[in-house]
Amino acid sequence: METRSNSNSYIGDVAMRKIIEVSNVSKEYGGTGAFRALKDVSLDIMEGEFVGIMGPSGSGKTTLLHMMSTIDAATSGKLLVDGHDIARIKEKEAARFRRDTIGFVFQAFNLLDNMTVRDNIALPLSLNNVKAAVILSKIEELAGILGIIEQLDKYPYELSGGQKQRAAICRALIASPKVIFADEPTGALDSKSSSEVLECLKSINHKLGTTIIMVTHDATAASYCDRILFLKDGSIHGRLDSDGNKMELFKRILNMLAVMGGSNYERL
Fold first, then answer.
1. Domain 8-259 is classified in which CATH homologous superfamily?
2. pTM of the model
3. Could you name the domain of life of the organism this protein comes from (predicted)?
């Protein structure tokens, strides 16, 4: 008799492993009369998914991202990342867990202007004393996927915004994380650069199988995702699944935002 783990879901006979499990998670800020940023949120994210999180300002989407990425701790509930209960990880182990499991991409590129792009990308592995030959090989591979081979020996201030973000994505990927958390990764970019960055994210999701969780206000950016979760007032208000038609998903996202009162969203 076949036994199926609770941490797996099945499509046909193919096991889909849960990389993140959020169970009744709440987050409160303040003491008496505390503000509840998240209210008993539950969700699963499968390994290899590209998931978008949308919601108006104050909806709890960034708070949820911070909970899942171990930047902040939940007030109550349970949160597993790659099978680890992150509330129980000891402080000494936390840095290693983040280094080995999680990558971050933010709206601000956080590149060091006094280092070349190559050295910026290499930094996480250099700090962990990985052999130079291994680092250089990984940089070439990832830079090829992200289309920044010709920018490797330049400095960040010589790059366009889109090139900087692709370099930041490359740096986030260099340690082969299982999950990339992206917080408004196209928020500071023009439409052309945004499209290039989103195509790169989609490419690494497909080619490397990296799970990506992206917070965005932008319906165009969200249309690149496999699935979008919509938050409102600290709770999940709805979800949409892609059928592979990006334009159709874009229209459905706009409809969902209209239902939620999304007049403040970008409609690109």
1. P-loop containing nucleotide triphosphate hydrolases (3.40.50.300)
2. 0.87
3. Bacteria
